[in-house]
Amino acid sequence: MPLDVKHGVVEMSHGGGGRAMTQLIEELFLTAFDNEWLRAQDDGAHLTVPPGRLAMATDSHVVSPLFFPGGDIGCLSVHGTINDVAMTGARPLYLTATFILEEGFPLAELQQIVESMARAAHQAGVPIVTGDTKVVERGKGDGVFITTTGIGVIPDGVDISASRAQPGDILLLNGALGDHGMAVLAQREHLSFDAPIASDTAALHTLTAAMTAAVPGLHCLRDLTRGGLGSAVNEIAHQSRVGMRLREAAIPVHEPVRALCEFLGLDPLYVANEGKLLAICPAEFAETLLTVMQAHPLGREAAIIGEVVADPHYFVEMETVFGGRRLVDWLSGEQLPRIC
Amino acid sequence: MKYLDEFRDGRLAQGLAARIHQEADPARAYALMEFCGGHTHAIYRYGIEDLLPANLRLIHGPGCPVCVLPSGRLQAAIELVERERVILCGYGDLLRVPGAQGDTLLKAKARGADVRMVYSVDDALAVARASPEQSVVFFAIGFETTTPPTAVALLQARREKLDNFSIYCNHVLTPPALRALLAAQDTNSPPFQRGVAQSAGVIDGFIGPAHVSTIIGSQPYEFVATEYHRPLVIAGFEPLDVLQSILMLIRQINAGETRVENEYTRAVQPEGNRKAQWLMAEVFTQRSSFAWRGLGELPDSALAIRPEFAAWDAERRFTIPKIPVTDHKACVCAEVLRGVKRPEECKVFATACTPDHPLGSCMVSAEGACAAHYHYGRFRQASSPCPSM
């Protein structure tokens, strides 16, 4: 009997190692992810890797809700790890995927998630070559948790690290802030909002490939996930022992995101993104890099947003739209809405 | 963004700033207090102080709801949620405010208490409807702005006979706090109330509340001008509102005038919002006295739920003891709230007390003077040759 995806739910036996597990893997995962490595059904994948330095990254995904405007946990888990690998300057090659499923989770939803992952991996050209499935008892998970790991190869001459920012370097952003975080928040809190906000979830590796090809001397790349731009600039400032100066007026934020942030008392600088990156490069390459970014579909709204300066306190300062200055500090705890 | 960008226009700001520089008398100093945390936040977030002359000082006032909440009232809520196993709903900032020994509602949540962050009291009502077997308590806090929604929720709970819902009322009133600040300043008048220090620096004028004034109007501030002879300009929370109100205050001060003026005419009527006032009067009554953090016991300064609504009053349904909690010895939140000290004058500011580990309530909310200075203004101290500025 084939798996009843339409009405069935995840059962403990789906993680038990027996026939039920094999059936779930074959009919759901293999069908969706289909590739030569998975078809071999070995314990691990045999991979051919081009010469060069390997980059490796891993990321767990526990997003709630699982489905949100613009994406779902499936494509997010593929994009997230591809982006982490890409931020090292590497070309991502292969992914692994681990699922922790909660007993009772509808198979129809699982199929939707798996198909979304397969689509994302296919579009990115980065196959999922091995994986694992575990089932936990009802109440001990939140539907589904997905962990993906990726490897890639760093081209010769590329040396990207958050510790390489130097005074005089220029900061570039590939687009508007906060779409993902506010899309998820609006969905989670059932905030009905006239202008729907869609997540920006996207695989950025083709953008970073174009950037490193045009400017191999790029110093830093960072994807702006949890904690947003505000956290990323502080992390890099500390790792590189420098300060930064941002110009608020230059930082793009889409209108509905600004409005919703305003409404909830949140700062878009700290809201999560899933398709945004910060690049830092020597000033002489900044214009070239900006042109390359703007020519890419995922960088059309790219902008120069500030520069690196020497500062013994590693402070990130921002010139406000108002002409004053303020600190852009680390986020403390979670960003909580203000009262009035 | 429509109706927002107009009030954040950098070029208009430069024009207003230039006029402030022109009109401010270099022979004197100006000390202006913004009462509300909303203004404090705008001042720091937009770097407004950079646009002002050096002889104009902004003093950050006590109008930050979580900042003036006495730790004991918060500690009582932590004990309530853990002892009675109720579902406690509250606004975001509140969950991080330290009670006794640095305990917070967020820590209680991590220990297993059912504490939920809500965006409005409506969400708390929805929780109560969805969990009829469990007692749901809404931690009501705030000045007159957040009070009418709480009133509506009480009426709604009564209409729906929502017996598992109750409110822990901590609503406070703005005018009595303003009066206490002024009484403490005015060395010629007898101390208004014990607990308020006499050492407050001289305040020349007030940037008056924005949202609070939409509810209560401008009339309740008249005593500031008539009894204490200080100008007060009601201002919106946008940065241009703040600059405009500063200019209006300077003009009054220079002319020796003391009037209540309204800069926030797009939202504030002299009589306020009568419907909201009626709702508040319907369900709340004044407490004879309430302890404010930093300001001490102030008479007629807070609201309690009327006896007719006793069934929805958490203080009547549960035993909520008065818990005396002394502030951390080194913390000067009390002085900061009165404008006597600046955040950076506190010994533990940015060392033992940070937004990640706040010792005092002013370090919690983004509207608190210490947190605003820490998040947005700390670099000024570092780059200043004199550390105390």
- How much β-strand is present in the residues of chain B? 15-25%
Strand content of chain A: 15-25%
Largest sheet descriptor of chain A? 7 strands, mixed
Helix-strand string of chain B: HEHEHHEHEHEHEHEHHEHEHEEEEHHH
What overall geometry of chain B do the principal axes of the alpha carbons give? Answer: globular
The percent of residues in helical segments of chain A reads 25-40%
How many DSSP helices of chain B?
Answer: 15
Q: Which radius of gyration of chain A do the C-alpha atoms yield?
A: 21 Å
* Structure summary, number of beta strands of chain A: 13
Terminal CA distance of chain B: 36 Å
Spatial sequence of strands, sheet with the most strands of chain A: 8-10-7-11-9-12-13
Number of helices of chain A: 9
Whole-number count of domains of chain B: 2
Count of spatially separate domains of chain A: 2
Average predicted confidence as pLDDT of chain A: 93
Distance between the termini of chain A: 59 Å
Poorly predicted runs of chain B: 188-200, 384-389
CATH top level of the largest domain in chain A is Alpha Beta
Structural class of chain B: alpha/beta
Please outline the helices and strands.
The complex is a heterodimer of chains A (340) and B (389).
Chain A: H1 19-33, H2 36-39, E1 53-61, E2 67-68, E3 71-72, H3 73-86, E4 91-102, H4 107-124, E5 128-136, E6 144-154, E7 170-173, H5 179-188, H6 205-214, E8 220-223, H7 228-240, E9 243-247, H8 255-264, E10 277-281, H9 286-295, E11 303-309, E12 316-319, E13 325-327
Chain B: H1 10-23, E1 30-36, H2 37-45, E2 56-63, H3 65-68, H4 71-84, E3 87-90, H5 105-110, E4 114-117, H6 121-130, E5 136-142, H7 147-160, E6 165-171, H8 174-185, E7 205-208, H9 211-216, H10 222-226, E8 232-234, H11 239-254, E9 260-262, H12 274-283, E10 284-286, E11 289-292, E12 296-299, E13 303-305, H13 314-317, H14 333-338, H15 369-383
Parallel strand pairs in B: 1-2, 1-7, 3-4, 3-5, 5-6, 7-8, 8-9
Antiparallel strand pairs in B: 10-13, 11-12
